Amino acid sequence: MSELKDELRAVFLFESLTDEQLDWLLDHGTVEVHDAGDVVYNQGELAEFFYVMLDGEVQLEKRLDGTDVVLTSSDLPGSYAGAMRAFVPGSQDESYVSSLRAVTRSRLFKLRAEDFAYVLKTWFPMAVHLLSGVFLGLTTTEALVGQREKLIALGALSAGLAHELNNPASAEVRAAELLNGRLQEARQAMVKLAPATTSEGLEKLLQLMVEAAERARTAPTLSALDAGHLEDTLAGRLEDAGVSGAWELAPVFASAGLDEAWLHRVLTCAGDGAPDAVRWLAAGIDIENLVGEIRTSAGRISELVGAMKDYSHLDKAPFDTIDVHDGIESTLVILKHKLKKGVEVVRDYDRSLPKICAQAGELNQVWTNLIANAVEAMDRKGTLTIHTARERDCVLVEIGDTGPGIPADVQRRIFEPFFTTKDVGEGTGLGLDISYRIVARRHHGDIRVQSEPGNTRFQVLLPIEQPAAKTTAS
Question: What is d(CA 451, CA 370) in angstroms, rounded to the nearest whole number?
């Protein structure tokens, strides 16, 4: 024991401790020996222990894209890892954020997280308060700025959605107002037509109305020259029949694909009531068109609401089996207002990709950040390419743009929190940091960038399956 006590005292972490404190560590800690290649603890496991290396060499590894990336290595006695935040309230249940592996045969002093927290709080209370304040202050600041980033993004999405909803809603209101007027015209025409027409004549006119509605639904689009010629022919025929406003009524019949032969049957059937019959039929055709316009507008509103529901995934479990294409398409619908002015969207999807286990709402935030950044980089004019493929055990989503590119020195810092190249007030520098956290930490994936002038590509790699501990803990 005395040898181990001397060994602990020689370590820079413990060199200032008293004999009583070193004895306490010896009573509560143990020494583990790990051969070269042994994993001391795995990323994602419950952070139960604090480790101090006595001799040997160890390295920290981070699992990204299905492979272990070495973060750092050390052969300095006293190097430490593990439950280093155990002294922070509520952090005892956190998982190891990386893995610790022995590079050579190594001896490690091992202390339980609660014992490590006791040591700091009891022996160094002032340091604990200072460290806790710094840690919690940074966490709070980051959370507040992160919330602001999300609120800014939400505001932009709300403005865009309001703009998208305004168009079909305005079309609906306009069509409803016109529909009310056409219904009144149809009633007035029928009031005048009914006394002057036999029941047999009214039945034939109703059949002609049904025929007109059917032909209007399947009418081909005429060229400007052919449409003008047909309108002239129909207007002339209406004038000969004594119908006032012939040049206003003729385009209604022409757009419905109705020809002179159909109009002749109407005039023959109606007899003296031809002017009122023509107005009634024209109003009926307009009513059909307006109802169709209202139906189309309502369908567009329903599509937008559905896209927003899919985008937010308010009715879905935190982790679910999803198709990444659904989230991308919902995001494109929500961001449509940003794409209208000159952005061509190229979809290069591999629809055979398997579904993945993921948190759809969080991934939609990633797609929003990457697509919005790409559009802004191109100044809203260029080609946005979205490519999906399988890469080993991951699904790859690549979002490319034809903007000026990202300089190499910026690429190295692009995922750093608070780093931004935008003007003051235009960005918080957290969009890509949040995206990285969602992909790498939340989904055990990876996000990277490749850029040159005219070709910038952000690549997101998402594991098809998530570790069981991750999905259940969420």
Answer: 14
